[in-house]
Write a structure and sequence with these properties.
alpha/beta; eight-stranded mixed β-sheet; 13 helices; binds nicotinamide-adenine-dinucleotide
């Protein structure tokens, strides 16, 4: 089978496969075609791909015409029409936010694998692209905040006196949040963190952060290690419980998310107004509606003396490692689907039944089906 890797649009610096994975796929008897310059912005040259056994195509149509097309960002515009009937597409599709893409892929009878729907189970861990990229995002959010803060992160004792450490609050301690905690700690900040799922308390503490307790009168724990949506009363209690912690922080990073829902609104403008001038807030959920009132996707907003950032594609700003990890996720997926090179798609498999959103002209994922019907209405 031929695997095609198109060049991403200018808004994403990542590439779906890196040379290291190409080599392994060629060994599994796949042919790999890479669009000329596809790895350039992630610092992988055409020469490295060729040395790994890939063909370099200057014509993007030749890449899109492959049996399997691997991408990072969802296809757009003319891309859909370039996929051949019966082809396999794997990449991020944001299928719940915009299910019309799945419809377009289904119209072409493409087998589409939405990488964000790979379940977060032990068996699927090596294919979990949402986690690999959220990890990069959590790391970069802290660096972004550190770069904008007018203060040191670590405590420093110098000849000119002692500087206290920065106080960092992380809200949401899932994959991105835990990496944000670890990164802020490595930089020497004093870190506090809160999550509605009390079971993460130990993980927060093991990273050297203090767990913020909040009595909401209900549990925020949902199923499968995810949170559930809070009642309106609990949301208000949460804002009250976090208000003092936010006010005392130099940096706040929010990563709170309930799968399939708009991001919960946790920080209000009143809470921001109590922060010290020069404080920095990074809303990692700005692209999903925002955890912070006033945040805007990919825009710097000044709320009084507080700088509010809403970056939506942090993994793309660390393209080499984000691509390498994503590429390994895709390699694991293909090794799973084609052990020893023989393609075998089992739609009843617990992993595939979640992430194969359409196949042979049928939309298979019930959440996507529901999203599509409400989208059309
Ligand atoms: P995750 O599901 O692993 O973590 C989200 C955490 O938020 C969970 O631990 C959950 O319990 C917690 N949570 C839910 N509601 C909460 C509430 N009301 N208060 C406190 N905690 C709450 O998700 P993730 O992979 O870590 O991603 C986190 C967010 O970051 C998502 O919105 C994701 O889309 C976004 N993200 C953004 C970028 C970027 O570049 N901006 C990159 C990667 C991920």
């Amino acid at each position: 089978m031929i695997i095609g890797v198109p060049k991403e649009s200018l808004s994403d610096s990542r590439v779906a496969l890196v040379p290291e994975s190409v080599k392994k796929l060629v060994r599994l008897s796949f042919e790999v075609v890479i669009e000329k310059g596809a790895g350039e912005r992630a610092f992988f040259s055409d020469e490295e791909y060729a040395a790994a056994g890939a063909k370099i195509a200057s014509d993007s149509a030749a890449v899109w015409n492959s049996d399997i097309v691997l991408k990072v960002a969802p296809p757009e515009g003319a891309d859909f029409g370039q996929l051949k009937t019966g082809a396999v597409f794997a990449g991020f599709l944001a299928p719940l936010a915009d299910p019309t893409r799945v419809q377009k892929l289904n119209d072409r009878k493409v087998t589409a694998i939405a990488m964000e729907l790979v379940p977060r189970t032990t068996r699927a861990q090596s294919m979990d692209a949402l986690s690999s990229q959220a990890n990069v995002g959590g790391y970069k959010a802290v660096l972004l905040a550190a770069g904008k803060l007018g203060k040191y992160f670590p405590m420093l004792t110098t000849a000119a006196g002692t500087v206290p450490p920065a106080k960092v609050l992380i809200i949401g301690a899932g994959v991105a949040g835990l990496q944000a905690i670890a990164t802020a700690r490595r930089l020497g900040a004093v870190v506090e963190a809160y999550d509605v799922r009390p079971e993460v308390k130990e993980q927060v503490q093991s990273l050297g952060a203090k767990y913020v307790e909040a009595d909401l009168g209900e549990s925020g724990a949902g199923t499968g290690g995810y949170a559930k949506e809070l009642s309106d009363e609990a949301k208000v209690k949460l804002q009250q419980a976090l208000a003092d912690r936010v006010a005392a922080s130099d940096v706040v990073i929010t990563t709170a998310q309930v799968p399939g829902k708009k991001a919960p609104r946790i920080i209000t403008v009143q809470m921001l107004n109590r922060m010290k001038p020069g404080s920095v807030v990074v809303d990692m959920a700005a692209g999903q509606g925002g955890n912070v009132e006033g945040s805007a996707p990919d825009t710097e907003v000044q709320v009084g003396g507080v700088l509010l950032l809403g970056p939506t594609n942090l993994p793309s700003t660390t393209p080499t490692h984000a691509s390498q990890l994503y590429s390994r996720n895709l390699l694991a997926l293909l090794e799973y689907l084609a052990p020893k090179g023989a393609w075998k798609l089992d739609l009843t498999d617990p992993i595939m039944s979640e992430c194969v959103v359409c196949h042979a002209g049928e939309i298979r994922n019930t959440r996507v089906k529901a999203a599509l019907s409400s989208y059309i209405v």
